[in-house]
Amino acid sequence: MIVIIDYGMGNLGSIFNMLKKIGAQALISSDVEEIEQADKLILPGVGSFDNGMRNLNEGGFRSVLDKKVLRDKVPILGICLGMQLFSRKSAEGSLTGLGWLEAETVRFSFDVRMGPKVPHMGWNTVQIVKSSRIFDDIYHDSRFYFVHSYHVVCRNEADVLTRTFHGFDFASSVARDNIIGVQFHPEKSHKFGMKLLKNFAELN
After folding, report:
1. Domain of 167: which CATH number?
2. What gap in Å lies between CA 103 and CA 157, rounded to an integer?
3. How many domains does the chain have?
4. What pTM, to 2 d.p., does this model score?
5. Of 33, 148, 185, 190, which is the active-site residue?
6. 92 noted as active-site residue
7. Choice among 104, 120, 154, 187 that is catalytic
8. Residue 113 banded pLDDT, cuts 50, 70, 90
9. Is 26 exposed, middle or buried (0-12, 13-18, 19+ CB in 10 A)?
10. Residue 187 designated active-site
């Protein structure tokens, strides 16, 4: 069973509907006991870093997530803000992140007269830089839907799974062992997003 964690920050219904469409067993839950029983986890997120971490901490999710992810090695997929919360901290706020990755979350910064627009919004391609089952049968330059002003900077380049160009190449997805994060929204990315979620659902 895939549990989509409801901590008050995510686009939960669209993710659930996409998983249902591909035949994956899933539920949306804020119940710690249901999260404890999950075979896989999805941490979605729309909003600010500090609000996300505050909701995880005050909602009692932090300890069960650390246990499931770090000790039990249950696969987890972070989406958009969910991926950013995997990092140690964010320029967007002052609270400490989950710290599962040696990474920081920073804001895009461009010359307003010449640089790309912020937020980075719309369809863009991903360049796969290392092998991962999450991208099985998804070819190079596949298009996904993005909406974000902040991006994750990994200290360990081996954690970067794909890169995307928006003024410069940034990490558009990350992976370390059972921890996977995508900056884009697979639930809004049509056939490529559906295939990515199917690959996640089929992970052992």
Report:
1. 3.40.50.880
2. 10
3. 1
4. 0.96
5. 185
6. no
7. 187
8. confident
9. buried
10. yes
